[in-house]
Design goal:
The chain is of the alpha/beta class and 223 residues long. Helix content is 32%, strand content 13%. The protein has one domain: TIM Barrel (Alpha-Beta Barrel), CATH 3.20.20.70. Helix 3 links the parallel strand 2 and strand 3.
Length: 223
């Protein structure tokens, strides 16, 4: 009797392994060789845009919780903050935020911290924001200003600077901040940014450090 040949198939289980995840890479380095034009959209136009799309038109973006100051009332003070909890966004994360902001008609993007000047990629973030047509702003204690970074950020398209003031005189302000000479740096920054058309604003924290509010306006004029 003829027996038909029977073919058999063996099923073998094999472990399926995913290729190793690629290590996160930094975005291409920003080209700082050429200045970036500051966004020219007027405040009135941005206001109309907000009315049209419903807002918001302004965004605060905390890029780091690291700070060089030692303010008595702040949880980010350098002597009180746990170094293990330090965190900063990556440049790519910041670019993603700028892209989202642009899609949602944000006109002003304020970089805050911590101290945003302590972030190594602040220049690239400011530059990218300006390139996308968003007005980049910085809120700073002023303790890290120097001639080089002021000129650099102006070249990157910075449009506005907010500097924090806690008291009505130099001694009290610098003692609370733990930043000797910071008032001189703030004064120099105000002088420089005025020459290049960048707006500077004082941010005042109302607290017991201001013992005489009537003296505050004159003190601010000296800076």
């Amino acid at each position: 009797m003829h027996r038909s040949p029977v073919s058999s198939t063996r099923f073998m289980s094999t472990a399926v392994t995913e290729p190793p995840a690629a290590a996160p890479t930094r975005p291409p380095a920003a080209d700082f060789s050429k200045p970036v034009a500051r966004p020219q959209t007027s405040g009135w136009q941005l206001f109309k845009d907000v009315l049209n799309h419903g807002g918001p038109g302004y965004l605060q973006f905390a890029i780091t919780n690291i700070c060089n100051a030692d303010c008595g009332f702040c949880g980010f003070a350098r002597s009180q903050f746990d170094p293990k909890k330090r965190h900063s966004v990556t440049l790519q994360e910041a670019k993603d935020v700028v892209d989202i902001a642009k899609r949602n008609h944000i006109g002003y993007l304020l970089f805050v911290g911590g101290e945003p000047m302590a972030h190594r990629d602040l220049r690239a973030m400011v530059r990218y924001s300006a390139e996308q047509g968003i007005h980049p702003m910085i809120c700073t204690n002023g303790g890290l200003w120097n001639e080089d970074n002021m000129k650099a950020l102006a070249s990157d398209g910075l449009t506005s600077v907010i500097m924090s003031i806690d008291a009505h005189d130099v001694a009290k302000h610098e003692a609370n901040r733990g930043l000797p000479d910071v008032c001189r740096k703030i004064k120099r920054a105000n002088e420089f940014f005025k020459t290049v058309g960048i707006q500077c604003t004082a941010s005042i924290t109302a607290s017991r450090l201001i013992e005489d509010y009537e003296k505050l306006p004159d003190f601010l004029r000296t800076l």
